[in-house]
What does this fold into?
Amino acid sequence: MYYQDTISLVKVDQKLINDFIRKAQRRLLLAKPSLFMEEVEAIKAVLQRQTCNCQVFLEEGDHAVRLGFGNLEALKAFLTITDRIKLVMADSIRLSMVLVDDKALFFTPPALAWEEGISSDKLIHPNGVWLSGEWVDQIFAIYAENRKPDDVIRSLPHNVIPFPVGIMPQGNGPQNIEKVKKAIKDLEENNPVDPMRLRQIQFYRNHFKLVRIEIEGANLRTKSVSLRIFNKFFDGREERLKSSWQIFTPDEVKDFSSLTEIYNRLAKAKSDHNVISAGRFGNLIDLSKKEAFEAEIRKIESSIKGQAETSSDKEPCLKTKLHNALSNSKEELLEYLLIRFKSNERAVKKLYESEPLLKKIAANVANDSEKALAERLSAFIDEKLKFPSYETIVSSFNINLDYYDVSDELLNENEDFKAFLKKDDDLEKKLRSYEEGFLSD
It folds into this structure.
């Protein structure tokens, strides 16, 4: 029995708490959201006394440190002494307690990231309760021994409304140490930000993006060569002169199904990955499927370009088909150009005079021969008209994916996009999720 039971309202600061901890001889019990380094050093000093029973209650998770009730370095240091401490993890500790031998202190710790700690000599209003006597043993039993509330509390008259009685959690030592390690890991991976620099806002996460898909080089129907450079050799306008040369015939284009079927393969990839067509806005894709969809697109793209290396005894490969078609087309173009020149000596003269490359070829061939003209025109087709090769045809094939955010303007101001979303209410709900958080200045 102690000499007397006392209770006092007191003013508490961090220095007094540290000094109080160091005085423990028989027992030390701390219940705090988290720890500071000075407190850990004080606990280490107490543990040098082999007879002192030490128990610590901490708040689970990394939230307490982020609010400024402790720091990462202190948790790391605390881990090194947990083999001599009974550690219990609790939830939302906001009434801190330090029990030393036959005295106990209850106080509300400041979240130091929100407000500076104030020394006790500058405090006007008390911020703690000081207890001694038999009450301390009862408090220790509630925390350390998990003693249940007395029956007398349960049998209060109906006109008395007590505060709910808290039951202290009990924990498994190794599991609690693992929880502290996890909190340290979370804090190291995502460093806490000083909440004094934060302001609370509502923010959203987009779960979808708009993707525009552009296919280049797959439409062989449009492959052509401009003949404007050739036509300048002729005076005036001749009705028989073409403005361009279509490289492939419709029948040849049909034969290149391995290239033109790209549109069907793309449609299947969109279906497999739930890519939703949004009309003129492009397509909507779930961010969780974006990586897999891109991989499928690149697979389609590379499979087309890779057909140059594959062939079959039964069916010529794409490379062979294209080579043959390009060779035939070039021969037909050369024949067309020759026919135009044969009846126009003035145009032939302009051709020879205007192209240095052709002059070099002419030095090796008789100027008046049809062979000389054919060789010069063949060079002209390659160097000036830039007649495509198999390599330029295939290398020009690309599937471009451009991503855009689903903006506030689209969601709230664009009537066409709003009308599109109304067709599927579930989609509109899935586009975004809203949360509250803190934004750093």
In short: The CA atoms of residues 1 and 32 lie 28 Å apart. The first helix runs from residue 14 to 22.
